[in-house]
Amino acid sequence: MDEKPLSRTASYAVLHEGYGSPGVAATVGLIRDGDVVVVTDPGMVRDRALILDPLRALGVAPEDVTDVVFSHHHPDHTLNAALFPAARFHDHWAIYQGDQWDERDAEGYELTPSIRLIRTPGHTREDITTLAGTPDGVVAFTHAWNRATSTGDAVAVDLSELSAARQRVLAVADIVVPGHGPAFVPDASTPRTPV
Predict the structure, then answer these.
(1) 158 within a domain of the structure (yes/no)
(2) What is this structure's pTM?
């Protein structure tokens, strides 16, 4: 599927590099584009300071975060959402803020011309990926991979959907920020088909 090109005005940072053993912690990301400040997957971490301290070091207070995106609804990706009291919250089918629940499909939803959500099911049926167009390329915050070397996904609901999600992400991304590991630049060794 051809993706509409993103503008390239966003910047990004990894606030916390996740892991899967021992324990579990999500990779938490930050995307900024103009007045829009997005945190991705503020889930389980050993200590909330592991999210808040890097955020503050980048000059962002929790109240400055305008949007939080959940790649999916597992607790390891959502548990610390309440750290951001002014944010709108995005998932696969709606935007939530205060007592408002506004339904919309995540597919193609643009937070800005440089930040877009796309559906990438496989790990769960509802998985989405956040794409950020930066001056250095497109960055994908996704759970299509747990880590750069993930050949499989022990809890995936559909490996064929996950394979298609990986192909879709690789068609547009220059950098991948996986669900539980460091960012990586995809190359020929990047696992494309989960087993």
Answers:
(1) yes
(2) 0.97
Domain presence at residue 4? no
Is the pLDDT reported for residue 1 higher than 60? no
User: Does residue 184 lie in a domain region?
Assistant: no
**Residue 12: closest CA among 38, 48, 41, 51:** 38
Q: Across the beta sheet with 36-40, what order do the strands follow?
A: 11-16, 28-33, 36-40, 67-69, 88-90, 94-97, 100-103
Residue 3 has pLDDT above 90, yes or no: no
Structural domain boundaries enclosing 118: 11-93+107-177
Tell me the per-residue pLDDT of 68-95, one tens digit each, with 9 for 90 and over.
999 999 999 999 999 999 999 999 999 9
Show the tokens assigned to 176. Answer: 């991948």
Alpha carbon 119 to chain centroid, angstroms: 11
